[in-house]
From TrEMBL:
It is a multi-pass membrane protein. Residues 128-420 form the NADH:quinone oxidoreductase/Mrp antiporter transmembrane domain. GO terms for cellular component: endomembrane system; membrane. It is found in: Endomembrane system; Membrane. InterPro entries: CPA3_Na-H_Antiporter_A (IPR050616), ND/Mrp_TM (IPR001750). It comes from the Bacteria. It comes from Sinimarinibacterium flocculans. Keywords: Membrane, Transmembrane, Transmembrane helix. This is Multisubunit sodium/proton antiporter MrpD subunit.
Length: 502
């Protein structure tokens, strides 16, 4: 029965998608269908945590020895499923407010593709082997491609082409050959504790294979295979939230961790230094993407390059293969999701309420949209790693992991990235709260303040369906600081680590 619950977790988004199509001519009921499916999925994945140590498994069919379509519940996968499942209803509420306020067309198609993307995320989360994961990975790409092209403009179609071509070329050209090579070496693609590759190849071969995997997992956005992510920012903001926080990039870094732990094995990674070259690629991506982010005036583009930088924290943690770095990777899946979805929610709320998309246009908006910019400030501080916000644990553990792995220079990379994070995130709320609004009359020219008041009345917060979700996810950045050890302790215990945050 416990194994069948995994199938139910995959069936709920499909049922939601079917309900959307049936109710497509009744917008209120259509949106109720996606909310009901989202809440049911969130409740289900959270209820599965008591059974995670039993590691229930379900095989649907076997293609050939060592290759089957199978599902298995383990802590890392359930962590990813919990992030995607719990954020789906929150994002759905936000999307209802955003899509209506922005008067977006083809809303049924939007919600349908969104539900299929969540289905694919569940397949990836509960995949019992590399074959099943690869199928879910490709379905996720195909389901989100129409969302990127949603607006139908030439710019949207171009961004969608870059998105689709990059992700398919990397997965079919690099990830698939890596899976075939792994099967040729080991005779299986099962996810096993301790890995399946140890003793089957030299360290040099394992290093090449690891590079194929990490570059082939294009959703992890390692440079130079990162351009799809900024290009996809032409999509509506709820899609950006899906790409950056709920499913797509999290599926990428989750796959990196699964491959590292269950294909290569942590002992083999440490003793043969398989991950060191890719650790340097991740460090390069962290710093360079953050520098590029500083130069972006478009708010969503700035946040996109921030994501490219932040994702490589997880890749770096996996490549370092130390206990603390591994736990950091698991934590960062959760904390980055909470912080980045808040930032994109805020960007969308600003667009809906003020029709502004550039950082240089945000001067003076803080007093008019206090909830939005306060939430942006909290989420930005969490992404940077400032306590008492959730992201601070990530930086601390990754620094400790770098020392444990014998690469203290990575501590310098992380410190530099934090300073760069301050440089590209904090000017946004500072401009909003402390700079005068552009074009506003000076006090000497408007002694009564009537002109200022009239301008202020023109802009208010976005609809409540946009503001409430961003406030909730911003608060999550605060509360996760105190409860992160309870989130990842099952993962640490399953991997044989007696670990707690202190």
């Amino acid at each position: 029965m416990k194994a069948e619950l995994m199938l139910l977790a995959m069936a709920l988004p499909l049922c939601g998608a079917a309900g959307l199509l049936l109710l497509r001519k009744q917008p209120n009921l259509r949106e109720a269908a996606t909310l009901v499916a989202g809440v049911a999925l969130a409740a289900l994945v959270v209820s599965l945590w008591p059974y995670v140590d039993e590691r229930p498994r379900l095989e649907l069919w076997t293609w050939m020895p060592g290759l089957s379509f199978a599902f298995e519940m383990e802590p890392l996968g359930l962590l990813f499923a919990s992030v995607a499942g719990c954020l789906w209803p929150v994002t759905s509420v936000y999307a209802i407010g955003y899509m209506r306020a922005a008067e977006e067309k083809n809303q049924t198609r939007f919600y349908f593709c969104f539900a299929i993307a969540i289905f694919a995320a569940m397949v990836i989360a509960f995949a019992g082997n590399g074959l099943t994961l690869f199928v879910g990975y490709e379905v996720l790409t195909l389901a989100t491609w129409p969302l990127v092209a949603h607006k139908g403009t030439p710019e949207a179609r171009k961004g969608a082409r870059i998105y689709l071509i990059t992700l398919l070329v990397t997965s079919i050209g690099l990830l698939l050959p890596a899976l075939v090579w792994t099967y040729a070496l080991t005779g299986t693609l099962e996810f096993r504790d301790g890995g399946i590759l140890a003793g089957h190849a030299s360290p040099q071969v394992l290093g090449i294979l690891y590079a194929l995997f990490l570059f082939g997992i294009g959703k992890a956005a390692l440079m130079p295979f990162h351009r799809w992510l900024p290009s996809a920012m032409v999509a509506p903001t709820p899609v950006s939230a899906l790409l950056h926080a709920v499913a797509v990039v999290k599926a990428g870094v989750f796959t990196v961790m699964k491959v590292t732990i269950y294909f290569f094995g942590m002992d083999a990674m440490r003793f043969s230094a398989v991950g060191q070259p890719m650790a340097w690629v991740a460090a390069f991506t962290i710093v360079v993407a953050a520098i590029i982010a500083i130069r972006q005036d478009n708010l969503k583009a700035r946040l996109a390059y921030s994501t490219v930088s932040q994702l490589s924290y997880i890749v770096l943690g996996a490549a370092l293969a130390s206990q603390d770095a591994l736990i950091e990777g698991a934590l960062h899946i959760v904390t980055h999701a909470a912080g980045k979805i808040t930032l994109f929610f805020c960007a969308g709320a600003i667009y809906v309420a003020a029709h502004k998309t550039k950082v240089s246009e945000l001067d003076g908006l803080g007093p008019q949209m206090p909830f939005t910019f306060a939430a942006f400030t909290l989420a930005g501080m969490s992404i940077i790693g400032l306590p008492p916000l959730a992201g601070s644990w990530d930086k601390l553990l990754l620094m400790e992991g770098a020392v444990e792995a014998g690469t203290p220079v990575m501590m310098g990379v992380l410190l530099v990235s934090s300073l760069l994070g301050i440089a590209y995130l904090m000017p946004i709320p500072i401009r909003a709260f402390f700079m005068p609004e552009r074009g506003a009359p000076a006090a000497a020219d408007d002694p009564s303040g009537e002109a200022r008041a009239a301008r202020t009345r023109k802009i208010r917060e976005a609809p409540w369906a946009c503001v409430v979700p961003l406030c909730l996810t911003a608060l999550a950045c605060f509360f996760l600081f105190f409860f992160e050890d309870q989130l990842v302790e099952p993962l640490a215990h399953r991997l044989g680590y007696g670990w707690r945050l202190e």
